[in-house]
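fyi for ur records
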Amino acid sequence: METSKVYLVSADDRRAGAQRCIAYTGLPDYTGKTVFVKPNFNTADTPPGSTHYDTLDVLLGAVRAKNPARIILGERSGPASTAEVFAAKGIAKLCDRYDVEFLNFEDLTPDEWVVIDRSGLHWPAGALKVPRALQEADAVVATCCLKTHGFGGVFSNSLKLAVGITPKDFATLHNTPDMRRMIAEINLAYTPELVVVDAVEVFTDGGPMEGERKRANIMLAGSDRIALDAVGLAILKSLGSNKAIMDTPVFEQEQIARAVELGLGVSSADAIEIVTDDGQSAAAAALVRDFLRK
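which gave:
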């Protein structure tokens, strides 16, 4: 059986945790290439409502150190204005520091979008659109926050992060029982080189902007979005979460089940290898493994 590695770091400091995650996984040489970076900025709320400044700082610095020709930081916030969210988070300073281009998806013209046209999708014909810049990039790296989602998604992690690459059209995605399946389908648009998950503090109910907060003091890294989301759900279960999380087996969550159907990653808990580098992280991983396999 082919396995996917999820790197787990016990950390109460996001900067140190992100540095350890990237040291684990490494990044390839990007000389002459374009790297697209996707953060979690649907709003400017404090983590886990949105990406922490320190996490993004470490990630952009690590990408810049690999000598890419271009780094594009792209996002579409919602319901808030993307420009207002980035101003509130002070991201312009980071972009300047690392020579990063900021792409506000709300400003894209029609020809800067690409339609994902594949049979069997739950999206209406022609409705699943993603930025051309994302599709044409040589590599994609991303960072997200682990949390429950009180507006139909059930949970938000690496698969749900992809909603921010679609146009701001809440009616199409939210007014349907297929919402969770549609979230998984957006991920057909790209394959990440690396995803760093901030689970230092999570929402165990509510979300995505505000909710019931609990500390897991964990950060994750990997490239398999199903594996990352499965481990994330196990973390939420270990902390005690809402009924939608606690009463549904990990691989029966609709986001994950549909992602498995689409071949986006592993298909079972047995195919996930959680890797750690110290005793504290190993103890946390052992607890997460128990909830992952229940």
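The mean pLDDT is 96. thats all i got for now
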